Amino acid sequence: MSVETTVNGEPEEQIETEWTEYGFGGDAAFSVRDLDVYYDDDRALRSIDIDIPEESVTALIGPSGCGKSTFLRCLNRMNDRIRAARIEGSVAFRDRDIYGTDVDLVELRRRIGMVFQQPNPFPKSIRDNIAYGPRKHGDINTGLLSRLLGGDDREREEELVERCLRGAALWEEVSDRLDDNALGLSGGQQQRLCIARALAVDPEVILMDEPASALDPIATSKIEDLVEDLAEEYTVVIVTHNMQQAARISDQTAVFLTGGHLVEYGDTDQIFENPQSQRVEDYITGKFG
Amino acid sequence: MSASHASSATIEDDRSGVARSAATTAVGLSVLTMLLAVANVLNWITTDASVASVALSTLYGVALAVAGVVTVAVGLLSASAVIDANANDTSGVLSGLPVGLLALSVVGLVASQTLGYGVAIWAPAALVCAVAAFLFGSLAREDLTATLPWGGFALFVAAVLLAGVITPSWTWDPRHLGVALTGTITVPCLAFAASLATAWAAAKATQGFGARGRQAGAYLLIGANALFMLSLLVLLVAFVVEKGAGHALRGIHLGPGLSVHVPFVMNGAGLGYDIDGVFPAIVGTFWLVFGALVFAVPLGVGAAVFLAEYAERGRFTTVVDIATDGLWSTPSIVYGLFGYAFILPRLSPGGRPNVLAGMLVLGFMLIPLVLITSREAIDSVPDAYRDASVALGVGRWETIRSVVLPAAVPGVITGIILGVGRIAGETAPIILVAAGGLNADPIRVIHGFRFTSSPPFVANDALLSATNALPYQVYAVIETGVGGSESFGWASAFVLLLVVLCFYAVGIATRMYFQRKLER
Predict the structure, then answer these.
(1) All domains of chain A, ordered by start, with CATH?
(2) By mean pLDDT, which of A213-217, B101-105, B233-237 is the weakest?
(3) Mutating which of B309, B312, B390 best tests the A interface, going by the most A Cβ atoms within 10 A?
(4) Which fold has domain B276-519?
(5) Of A106, B220, B330, B496, which one's alpha carbon is 20 to 30 angstroms from that of B136?
(6) What is the predicted pLDDT for the residue at B375?
(7) Which of B361, B37, B364, B369 is nearest to B193 (CA)?
C-alpha cells in the first residue's frame, strides 16, 4: 500500500508501506492500527500503523504541527481531555485495546506515566509532589486516621521518595530540602522532579513530550542521560524536535511529517544514516522543516 | 524645526533649554496651586484668608497668570520654531473634544450668566465657539492645541479672580437649579481646574510635545488621579475617625488588673450603664456576617467548582453567568424585601425579625460574589496542574480537591473579603429582617443552643430573636434619632469601620498564609 500526499496541491513523494515496517524481536508495548485523530474538522493524524517495543527508547520526531505530540497523547488517552478531539482506529497496550469500553482510565494512566514539555510540579513540597500519586491511589496512608489506627506508612513514604528521586538523578541535589516548595527548584530540577513523580506510581511506560525543550543545555544533557537509564526498566516514548537528541538517546525513531503522516519508522541508526524517504532525508539534514 | 546651521542649532538648544525649564517651573507652580486649592476646599485654609498678607484669591490669580503666560508662550515659541520641539502637525479628534467642551462651557456660562444674554443668543454663540474650538483643537499643530486653550483658560480665570469678579463673598443662585454656589467654594474649584489644565499643558511642554510630551502629560494626569483617589479614601476615614473616635473612646480606663475597659465598645445600652455602648451591635454584626459566610461560602464555591470544572460551556452556563451577575447587582433592599416576605413567615411565628433570617438574606447576597470570584480563581489555575495530576492516574474530583482548590484558595478568599465588606455594612435588609432596636444585652448564640427531646433535637432561641447591628444602629441613631445623640451614631460608624477592617485583616492574613504555602 502506498499513500500519495500533497502539499499545496503539488504531488509529493509516495509513502511506501515498507518504510514504516520495523521488525524487532520481543513483544510490542503498543500496537497502533489505522489511527486517525481529528480536532473538529482538522485531521491531525492519518492512518498511523506502528508497533512500539518494550523497554527501549522510541523517539518521535518531525516538524511542528506534524501530529507527534497528538500521537503521544493518544497512548495514555490524554486527548480525551480535549473536547474537540475525535479518535478513530485502535491503540492496544499489551494486546488490550485502550479505547475499549471496559478500560479503567485511572489504572491506564497509572501504568502509562507522562512528562510534559513545561515542567509542571504542583505548588507543594518536593516530598508531597512525589508522594502525591501513591497517596491518592491509597498505596501510602499518612493521614491522621491511619496514624491513629497504627498503619502509618511514613517510613515507606521516605523510602519511596528517596528511591524515586534517585531514579530521577535528583536525590543528591535536594535530599536536604525535601520540605521546600518545588517551585523553588530550577527548571531542570523541576523537570527531573516531574519524572520522579511519574516514577512514584510505578508505571510501565513513560511518555515524554519534548521534556527538555524548555531547558538549558546542561539540564538537557542530564535529562538525556536519565532517559537512557530509564529505558533499562521502562518503555520510554519521547517526542522531540531536537534531532541530535533523538539520535543520541533512542533505539528506534519514528518520523512524522506535515499533514499527520507517519513517513518512516525504524532503527535510529538506519533512519539517521540511510533514510529511505527523500523527504525524511531532507528533514534530517535540515533542508526543510 | 531643525536648524540648518550648527551655530543656530546651539542657540536653539539654549532657547529650548530655557523654555523647558520655564515649563517645568509652570508645572511646579500649577501643582502647588492645586494643592492650595484642595486645602482650601477641605477648609484647612478659608477662602477669605490671606497668605503672607496677600489675599488667597489674589494668590491664585497671580499663580495662574504666571503659569498661563508661560504655557501660552512656550506653545507659541514652539509653533513658530523658535524653540526645538517634535510636535505633530495635526492634533486629532481626541485633542479637539476637550478643547471644544471647554469652549462650550466657558462661553456658555459667561454669555448666559455674566452678560445676561437670553437663550437665543448664548446658546448659538456657545455652540459656534465650541465647534470652532473643536476644529482648532483637532486640526491645528499639536503644540498650539496643547497649550493655547488651557493656558488661555488659566489666564481667563486669573483675570476673573484678580479683577474681583468672583470673590469669596460672591454667590450665584441660578434660577432653575436648586443649588446656590458661593465664592468660598467656587474660587478654589476654579483655581483647581485651571491649575490642573496648566499643569497638564506645561507637562507636555517640558518634553517638547510629541509622543514624549503626551507621555509626560498622561503621567501627570494619572498620577493626580491616583493621588486624588487615595486622598479621598484617607479623607473619608479621617472624617469618620475625627467625628467618632472621641465618643468611642470616652471613659476608657485600665483595670481591674491588666484589662482595658472601653465602655463604648464593651457596654450595652440601657439604664444599667453609665456610658451607653454598642457591644450588642458588634456581636450582632459578627454573628450576621459569620452566619452568612457559613451559609454562602460552601454553596458559592461548590457552584463555582461545578461551573468551572464540570459544566460544558454552553447556553446553560451563559444563563447562570447572567443570573449571577444580575443577583450581584440586585439592590440590597430587594433582598431585604424577599427575606421579609418569604423567609420571616417561615422561620418564626408572626414573622418577627430574627438573626437567622438576617444570616440567610446576607448569605443570599454573598453567594453571587463568592461564585464569581471563586470561578475566576479556579479558571486561572494552570491546566498544567490538572494534566499532571490526571496523567498520574488521579481522578477528576481528587484532582480538583487536592490540586485545583488549594491553588485557587487565595483568589476565593479575596472574593470573600470583598463580599464581607459589603454585607457587614448592609443596612436595608437588616432593618427589614433582623433588627430589633437598641439592646442592653448581646445575643448569646453559643449559649442559646440546647437539645430537645423531639425533632430537630436542637434548638436555639437566640438565633430566632432580633438583634442589633452596627450599620442599623448608625442609621437608627442618625436618621431617626433613636437612642441618643448624633455623636453616638458617629462613634458607631467608627466602630463599624474598625470591625470591617478586622474582618479584612483576618481575611488578608488567611490569604497570605495560603499563598505562602503555595510558594515556599
Answers:
(1) 15-122+203-284 (3.40.50.300)
(2) A213-217
(3) B390
(4) MetI-like fold (1.10.3720)
(5) B220
(6) 93
(7) B37
